[in-house]
Amino acid sequence: MNWNRRDFLKNTSAATLAAMAGSVPMSSFLSSCNGKSIHSTADTVILLWMAGGMAHTDTFDPKKFTPFTKGMQANSVLSTFKSVPTILDGIHFSEGLQSIGKVMDKGTLIRSYVAADMGSILHSRHQYHWHTCYKPPQSVMAPHIGSWIAKQLGPKNPVIPAFIDIGQRFNLGEGEELKAFHTAGFLGNEFGPFLVPDPTSGLESVRPPVGMSSSRFEKRNQLYNDLISQSPMGEFGSDYQKESLRRSMEQAYILLKSPEAKAFDLSLEPKESYDIYNTGKFGLGCLMARRLTEQGARFISVTTEYEPFKGWDTHDNGYTRLIDMKKQIDGPVAQLIKDLDKSGRLDRTLVILASEFSRDMMVEGRPDAKVPEQVDQPDVIQDIKNYGMHRHFTDGVSMLMFGGGIKKGSVYGKTADERPCKTIENPIVIDQVHQSIYHALGIAPDTNYLVEKRPFYTTPDGLGKPVMELFA
Amino acid sequence: MATEKVFWLWEFLGRLHPLAVHFPVSLLLLAAILELFTLKNRHSKLRPGINILILTGAASAVVAAFLGWLLYRHGDYSGNVLIIHQWFGFVTAGFGLVLLLLLYRRGGDSGNFLVYRTILFITAVTVSVAGHFGASLTHGDDYLSSTLPWDKDYVPASGSNFNLASLGADTAKLTKQQEIELNVEVRAILAHNCYKCHGAEKVKGGLRLDGKHLAFKGGENGPVIVPGNTTESELFRRISLPADDKDVMPSKGKRLADRDIAIVKFWISKGAPWPEDGSKASVYRVAKLEPRNPVLPAPTAGLSNPIDLWTNKYFKKNYSQWPAPVDDRLYLRRIYLDIVGLLPSPAELDKFEKDPRADKRALWVRQLLNQQDDYATHWLTFWNDALRNDYSGTGYITGGRFNITDWLYRSLKNNKPYNQFVKELLSPTDASKGFIAGIQWRGVVNSSQRTEMQAAQNVSQVFLGLNLKCASCHNSFISDWKLADAYAFANIFADTTLEINRCDKPTGKYVDPKMLWQQLGAINSKATAAVKQRQLAENLVKPEDGRLYRTLVNRIWAQMMGRGIVEPVDVMDNAPWDQDMLDWLAFNFSANGSDLKELIFQIATSKTYQLPSVGFKEVALINNPNYKFKGMLRRRMTAEQFTDAVSGLISPMFLSVDLKYDPFTAAAYKNTHTKPAIIRASLVANNSFLTALGRPNRETVATSRDSQANLLQALELTNGGRFNDMLKQGAQQWKAQYNDPDTLIKALYSKGLAREPTTKEFTLAKKALGKAPSVAAIQDLFWAVVLLPEFQIIY
Hints:
The complex is a heterodimer of chains A (about 475) and B (about 800). With about 475 residues, chain A is of the alpha/beta class. Chain A has eleven helices and 19 strands. Chain A has one domain: 3-Layer(aba) Sandwich (Alkaline Phosphatase, subunit A). Chain A has an eight-stranded mixed sheet, with helices on both faces. In chain A, strands 1-18-19 form a three-stranded antiparallel sheet, with no helix packed on it. In chain A, strand 4 and strand 5 form a beta hairpin. Chain B is mostly helical. Among the domains of chain B are: about 130 residues; about 120 residues, no CATH class; about 100 residues, no CATH class; about 160 residues, no CATH class. Chain B is globular and about 100 Å long. Chain B has a two-stranded antiparallel ribbon. Chain B has a two-stranded antiparallel ribbon with strand order 3-4. In chain B, a hairpin with a 2-residue loop joins strand 1 and strand 2. At the A-B interface, helix 5, helix 6 and helix 7 of A face strand 3, helix 26, helix 27, helix 30 and helix 31 of B.
């Protein structure tokens, strides 16, 4: 095995291309193949996922603040926090997000995302829709956006898995529903997420098994290679199955031995910096994401983690719980942007902060639609536990984008200042969000594969369009 | 890696072979022709010319043969055609030299003309034969014959039997029938190349070509077809432009084949006939519904299994030979993995090898099929994938999904006849309703994903190898199935008639429930879903429904042979590599009680199954329409086979607490079985280890597994906790059990790889273990051995 690692991995991806076949998707002739390529403005994506529904009026789109008093009218409450200024003139955030407010000169604030209407407002379905751009269920396994990107662009550094998902465990409530979209679907397992459920133990995923010394790991690998070369299977010469197995084992070995794997080792981060990020699992996930971008990761998702009724999924105590949620995200997100900016990586790294939908104290779903109410909200609030945005709201959702060719210091879209605080300017839907991300990465909008002879596009029917106003 | 780099010159010279061969072919043939003119007058003036032709021809034959040999050494050629070509080439060169010798000895125009002429004419024959087979190597052996209308394999591009030449001269008037055929052919070309942008889905330039009036109406810039005038017809102009012209159509994808352009041209020049009757003929390849029982070829020496008789016929046609069948060791490993999903133990291997009975292979296959629980547990995996049955997954959280494991396990264990099996899934009891009940998510779903439509899609995919997914949203443009057909079929599963939605928009139209093939029987449109499903079940399993049985035998074949007779297995309209084999198997399966175990028995005991396995370099070759069957394709173990194999070999991966379905505590099974040694992977919930190794999450129907290894999988195997813990536990047990490394190594190889280690392997393993093996050393040896391709591949 004296192969140069880069050569080896180059060969690997060539072989992977060769592996495309009928049951495996075939690139459709519908895909742009006329040589016209989109000029890309980004080559890495970090998705900061606010799981559970982040209320826009209590975060990035604050409205009139009404402090808690016993016996207050619920309908009078639009925001439960004060507004604080950001670095942008006339733009305010909800109190507790000052740090992010200070880096808004490096990105675009989107206040007009509108989540789809799927009858019921359900976290798992809306998250599926956000991440795949398709509404569940589907007759074909829809790939996660990270898998599409992994498939189209491959790993940026061949040693690092192209799609890394940090912070989500799957043994919690609705774990099966989460699994349904944390998948490469018909693109094949190869493009699936590399899961790091807990960033504090992320290193375990990329080092020799617990308790195995480096020299023993080395010896074990050597023994494997020796035995392969002796195996009578060698008689068969070059064989797809054999080579595929062998290559994948070699790749794993290379990753585990690579200096790049140290990106997963947060203990190597200087204490000062570590402390800024260390607001919990999410904050450390941001730190890991930053470290991974330095080693050439392609698509990284960091989540506050979805667990029913936890995190952003505030069915009660909205106000109190948001104080904590903001603490979790404010410092690390701002620091991530600053660090990327300082190292110059922000230019080619697109950072997105998003949530499946928003929340409101009174409206469930959208203003004019009837859906089952998920939360009991008294009209008159006696207890602070009822003070907060507890119902699911889809018509005005905030989102942030930084870097990767996105306008700096810009605001896109607007919601009404009166209830329902819904989008009144420049509504943007998921197809546009996905196409904007693909556009930044230089992935053609009509990218598709034939699955069972039918074209399956990155966004349904290939119809989505990027929002060009977002780009500088 | 091991491939030696070839000296460039040899490779270069070798590649000159196809160029060089033209010299001996033309020179020697010309010499022979001229020689014919000298038969009456041997002192013809042609003589000196002939001599030069023979001299240059013979010399070039020798050179060509040498270059050919170089090409063979460094190129990727093999097979019978090559051998024939090679020998005829060498013989030609040899005869050429003999001719030269005769000429030289003759010293002019005297000498033995009989010998000389005989050899010259033989040489002319051998050089032609060599040339023919050489061309077959380069262009494929059906290059010529496939164009002949009387060739059985003749399949024009669209799959119809159209032949432009048969329509006669340009001036001839076409008959009605010919007009229909020509029009169908043209519409096939338009459907495959143009509908995508000029059809119901997309109307670029305002032009639609998917209907008579639409096509003649033209687009934004007027008509594109001027009947009788090709030069005025924009459609013809655009498709006949060079590939790099900016106006060429199709603007994306490949330029049309010359043949297709010629057909369109001919059609327009004939006045672009588009007879109304023709509209009913299909433009897609459609497999016949009816069963067919082709007459078996007569038994020949050593062959009696019907599968082998068909294979023999197929091999003859394709110049293939019967290689020797695999040895006992390999055979036993295959049938164990294919029938019960387990590895044979060393004791079983030994017993099998020593079994003196002539028909021991058949006897052991029978015995494995009789291990009812092992058999059911193994095949559960295949059917769970196909019927998307799992212990966990979406839908269960709100009662929107039903598990059918108990019904499925019992059906497999009792070898329920397939027609009965299908009937019970279509017209279900509570125990088997999960398949057509589908997965119901909360909230409003796309109309093409309501459970009735899921049932229509899944029933047609799994049982009929038919894709109804397109047609459940809009008229399909990859088949003739229409939106109304899909709704008619879906209405069988609905208590009320569903409103037809086109791309999620209500149309206000309704359609009565109907079979996809109405000749299979009627459905009472007024009846409840339960009654309609009963009618569907009865109709669908009729022997007249050849498609149901072809789909099934093709699936089982693909499971055991690595590739179906038709591929992909869900597209039964595709051409099989042997129609007779498929038809015979399906007919006789259905005629003999739809007995799945008998089908497996028939395949497993055939010499065809016993052929050495065939490797391939690229997955794409599997689905290549020109695929030639040579033997089973090497397959990777499934997640379940691999897990069960290491569980049995080393230490259990799962414990009783992991069991999601326990057939051994089910009351009905008490005392009817022996408790198995390990917890099988098909009986536990999916987890990250099984997922990484390819177990699908069964949100959708899955009828084949992704066999490509990948990084995420390798990481799970390299440092995954579950796997390494199991290896460690096993190492502790083995350390206690075997006190010397020699026995341990031998046991590992014999249990895991069904063979002794070679001396070199033994030395390597021994070095790794040391004199007194530690748990760690044993664990690492386990790891290295079970990850060998030899362990993981069924070959």
